[in-house]
Amino acid sequence: MTDSLTAPAGPGAVAAPHPDGGPGPGPADGHEARTLLARARAAVDPALRSALESLPAPLRRVALHHFGWEHPGGAADGSPGGPGPADDARGRAGGPGGAGKAIRPALVLAAARAFGGEKAEAASVPAAAAVEVVHNFTLLHDDLMDRDTTRRHRPTAWTVFGDADAVLTGDALHALAQRILARDPHPASLTATARIADCVVELCAGQQADTALERRQPTEVALDEVFAMAEAKTGALLGCACAIGGLYAGAPAADVEALDGFGREAGLAFQLIDDIMGIWGDPLRTGKPAGADLAARKKSLPVVAALTSGTPAAAELAELYALPYDGGDLDPAIRAVERAGGRTWAQERAATHMARATRELARALPDPERAAGLLSLAAFVTRRTT
Amino acid sequence: MTDSLTAPAGPGAVAAPHPDGGPGPGPADGHEARTLLARARAAVDPALRSALESLPAPLRRVALHHFGWEHPGGAADGSPGGPGPADDARGRAGGPGGAGKAIRPALVLAAARAFGGEKAEAASVPAAAAVEVVHNFTLLHDDLMDRDTTRRHRPTAWTVFGDADAVLTGDALHALAQRILARDPHPASLTATARIADCVVELCAGQQADTALERRQPTEVALDEVFAMAEAKTGALLGCACAIGGLYAGAPAADVEALDGFGREAGLAFQLIDDIMGIWGDPLRTGKPAGADLAARKKSLPVVAALTSGTPAAAELAELYALPYDGGDLDPAIRAVERAGGRTWAQERAATHMARATRELARALPDPERAAGLLSLAAFVTRRTT
Q1: Are the beta carbons of B198 and A179 separated by less than 8 Å?
Q2: Which chain B residue's Cα is nearest to A190?
């Protein structure tokens, strides 16, 4: 469910200014966010590459494939990875290579900078790298469990190397993340390790809830359950990234928790927007056909909101969802979600969560100038998909 | 391959004195080792149970099943788990329940005690629990990858809860192990965390090598590869356990490395003995039919030694191994390994590795009285399976 949050941010994928506003504040052109993402990618890539290089060869090749770094002509020369001319040249939004758009490391660095300036930002690079490794370990395992075949425009690791190597490389990456923190002499590294461990448990619970929801009847799923799953699966690590940045900058405990809340709320706003895109998104921008989530009978937030709306359209949608997709016209289902209020509800809820995110952030960083970096990142991940 | 090293040590499973000596020193009746194992079980179980209780419910039930703690009438009341009257009453060697025989935590505690007495031993309990949790996370994932259906006389987690829940619960246990260490105020906890992370990478590499070896032609496998795999898969965590006990007792770096070497060598001795048992073991004691490893066409150490012996029996064995087992008489294969020298070689190599283990330990602990606990544990895990 976090595809567009983890896809490479190649030039083609960058959001144009949203025509009708969209949730969240921040510069309309996303320039600041793109700068922060590129800086984060450049800052953490050396640590990521050196961690991956330390793996035994059979696991290293799986990890390099997963990060999109094994291609000759890619960034395997040690230069900063991520989007660039090499990706551009291969065409398509975001390009076929690249290690993703480093939103989580960027949140760590931006939070550290907001509380401790450049010095704290520089000191938090290992923690930012650890968070990115954790994220990638969970993606590797999630792709296997979900039997997803494509990630970042490339075949997923399990399809290339088999189930066992995908499980083992994920486990090894998880261990690498700990090692990066355990070897980091920063006084906050132990607290960060504990916080990441708690977050991984929550990520696992979120993925477990997601796979369990997949097996349930659509009409048996409550909206609260889907929110709880989305917060655990998407919000928790965004919150953890912000909190760790604060920890590394020596922020007070209450501010660290406010940073965590900011990331979680932004994550929920992102998930709602992503779910909207899964139904009404422009295929040219999402890379998926319109209504893709409905064809897959996904119990996304707008769908469950529609199903539980008590409207005549809800009954109609439930009837459609009771049968597997037959390859036919998706318009009746799309219209049913819309008539049941699913789209409006999701847009309003996304705005609500972005407002909450902004409020949480203001608790920790009342000075708008210091909050600007984090806000621009939150606005970018929510706006770019609308 | 670590079945008998991880099986519950119920009364029925305890080794009788070995008739013809067997490798390794230590008291012949294993009394001291059994006492240490029971003490380790009692010491770490509260930490393990409290860690498991902290998991979200859907992951907790998988973890409790894996540890053998979910049965009413078992030890789910919070009392120390492991073998006891409840297991006994259910019959069979070791009983159907129980969390295993705690060899790794016992090694942590014994090493800490040897270097720092009772106080250091008590302080190392969280580290011992973390090592045991790491061990169990790898078992959970290995069972899934190997499609093993039985562990500790009970159905494996993936057969009961499915692949996704097995992967996720393993991941969550891995995170719990880090959290136990990260929340441990002991000054050695950060170093221990890094050491465990390195060990997990090695365990993953060992399991990867094992699954890769399974796919290769028997005649294409070199003995060195099997040894490297066994050291990574079995020796590394035994070495890590001993090293962490030393770290927690403030042992000098050279002694910590000697402890690691002791555990690794003991692990190799164990693996050789276990492989001998997989071919010539008494079915009543191994719980497997005689020749089980040959029926499964396993590339165990005695088999590869036989295949690479250059003897006429090697060619005969290669011919038998070229075909899948047809359910017929295993005696020709058993005799071929024996005539090719596989059994004698394995017995001699096991003795060599136990001698090396003893030598490593003497480097760190020249006083035999202080070394006695660790030696008795090493003797126990190697002797009990002969």
Answers
A1: yes
A2: B182
Nearest CA in chain B to A207: B168
Q: What is the pLDDT of residues A123-145, one digit of tens each?
A: 999 999 999 999 999 999 999 99
Mean pLDDT to the nearest integer, B214-240? 95
Which among B141, B181, B196 has the least Cβ separation from residue A171?
Answer: B141
Residues of chain B above pLDDT 90, percent: 74
**A364-381: average pLDDT:** 95
pLDDT for residue A88 is more than 50: no
A224 in contact with B, Cβ within 8 Å? no
pLDDT of residue A32: 92
- Whether residue B296 lies within 8 A of chain A, CB to CB, comes out as no
- pLDDT, tens digit, for every residue of B138-192? 999 999 999 989 888 889 999 999 999 999 999 999 999 999 999 999 999 999 9
- Give A-chain residues touching B205 at CB under 8 angstroms: 55-56, 58-59, 168, 172
Question: Of residues A81 and B97, which shows the higher confidence score?
Answer: B97
Q: Is A247 on the interface with B (CB under 8 A)?
A: no
Which chain B residues contact residue A204 at CB under 8 A? 59, 168-169, 171-172, 175
Q: Which of residues 27-66 of B touch A (CB under 8 A)?
A: 54-56, 58-59
Instruction: Report the chain A residue with the minimal C-alpha distance to residue B146.
Output: A164
Angle between helices B189-215 and B163-182 (to 10 degrees): 150
Task: Read off the pLDDT of each residue in A247-260 and give the average, rounded to a whole number.
Answer: 98
* HEC secondary structure over chain A: CCHHHHCCCCHHHCCCCCCCCCCCCCCCCCHHHHHHHHHHHHHHHHHHHHHHHCCCHHHHHHHHHHHCCCCCCCCCCCCCCCCCHHHHHCCCCCCCCCCCCCHHHHHHHHHHHHHHHHHHHHHCHHHHHHHHHHHHHHHHHHHHHHCCCEECCEECHHHHHCHHHHHHHHHHHHHHHHHHHHCCCCCCHHHHHHHHHHHHHHHHHHHHHHHHHHCCCHHHCCHHHHHHHHHHHHHHHHHHHHHHHHHHCCCCHHHHHHHHHHHHHHHHHHHHHHHHHHHHCCHHHHCCCCCHHHHCCCCCHHHHHHHCCCCHHHHHHHHHHCCCCCCCCCHHHHHHHHHCCHHHHHHHHHHHHHHHHHHHHHHHCCCHHHHHHHHHHHHHHHHCCC
Distance in Å, alpha carbon of B193 to nearest chain A alpha carbon: 6
pLDDT confidence bin for A285, thresholds 50/70/90: confident
> Which segment, A83-97, B81-95, B320-334, is predicted with the most confidence on average?
B320-334
- DSSP-assigned letters across all residues of B244-280: HHHHHTT--HHHHHHHHHHHHHHHHHHHHHHHHHHHH
